[in-house]
Specification:
Elements (H helix, E strand, L loop, with lengths): L1 H15 L2 E2 L2 E2 L8 H13 L3 E2 L2 E4 L8 E4 L4 E7 L12 E3 L2 E6 L6 E5 L4 E5 L8 H14 L9
Antiparallel strand pairs: 1-2, 3-4, 4-5, 5-6, 6-10, 7-8, 8-9, 9-10
Length: about 150
């Protein structure tokens, strides 16, 4: 039952990330000051294009959120650890960044785990395989957000 709820939550973010007159509307995380500082560093390293899609303006002027293209690829930094994570969860590792895909059967939401800040990346299924996006964002995460000690997520 929880997997279904996680999938619904992941789909909800994609739906919330629709374009409006003032830019892409998506919820801005509210992390502690230390995490927010890490996210600000990440924001400076994010690519201008992702899946050949240009960066678009988020409605909220915050370094904690970023968006590209239409349909919107949405990134949020400083989110809480996903409820769907379990010690036996299958993670995808891309350039030393472990990602939790949700839902497991056809993921569209990926959360970077085992880092001092959790980063959520929503990639609509219409972009196909997520590898290109995960590689680009993993490079930025590796450079800006320190890994947690082994075994911590």
């Amino acid at each position: 039952m929880r997997k279904g709820a996680a999938g619904a939550a992941a789909t909800g973010l994609v739906l919330l990330a629709g374009c409006t007159g003032g830019g892409v509307d998506m919820p801005v995380p509210e992390p502690d000051a230390e995490t927010a500082e890490l996210c600000e560093g990440l924001a400076e390293r994010l690519p201008e294009t992702l899946f050949d899609q240009e960066r678009t303006q988020a409605q909220a002027d915050s370094p904690l959120v970023a968006a590209w293209g239409d349909p919107v690829i949405a990134l949020r930094c400083g989110v809480p650890r996903p409820d769907a994570y379990r010690p036996d969860s299958e993670l995808m590792v891309v350039d030393e960044v472990a990602w939790l895909p949700e839902p497991q059967d056809e993921p569209t939401m990926y959360t970077a785990m085992a880092r001092e800040a959790y980063v959520e990346l929503s990639i609509p299924a219409s972009y196909g395989a997520p590898a290109q996006g995960l590689v680009a964002i993993s490079e930025a995460i590796s450079a800006e957000i320190p890994a947690l000690p082994p075994g911590e997520y």
